[in-house]
Design a protein that fits this description.
By secondary structure, this protein is mainly alpha-helical. The protein contains two helices and no strands.
């Protein structure tokens, strides 16, 4: 084997041969703009799942207890504020599901009452 020999790698034929974003996807200042946003991206997992929110609440409450044992009052308050925030999110989701359930029950009642009135007419 010839270990002293340098390997020559093939260079690109054209430097602009790779894929580029369309010109309309970036603004004049050179930064990419995402006007549509990524609506499916969620940094803290699924915030629509009550079970995952409950886990996060318990995590922050446990972190607050650990901070209390270490004697850091600022960290305790920080973790408790996080837990409170997710508690409000959980309450908001629970209210939405209750309202949705109540609305579906009302529409079923209306449909059933209209069906019975139609049967009486026949």
């Amino acid at each position: 084997m010839n270990n002293n020999r340098r390997r020559n790698f093939r260079g690109r034929q054209q430097k602009n041969n790779f894929r580029r974003r369309p010109a309309s996807s970036h603004s004049n200042n050179g930064h990419f703009s995402n006007s549509a946003g990524n609506k499916n991206f969620n940094r803290n997992g699924s915030l629509s799942n009550p079970a995952s929110i409950e886990k996060v609440i318990l995590k922050y409450q446990q972190l607050a207890k650990d901070a209390q044992s270490s004697g850091d009052p600022v960290l305790i308050e920080n973790y408790l504020q996080h837990a409170d925030h997710y508690s409000r999110k959980l309450a908001e989701i629970n209210n939405k599901t209750k309202l949705a359930a109540n609305n579906s029950i009302k529409t079923e009642d209306v449909n059933l009452s209209s069906e019975t009135s139609n049967e009486k007419k026949i």
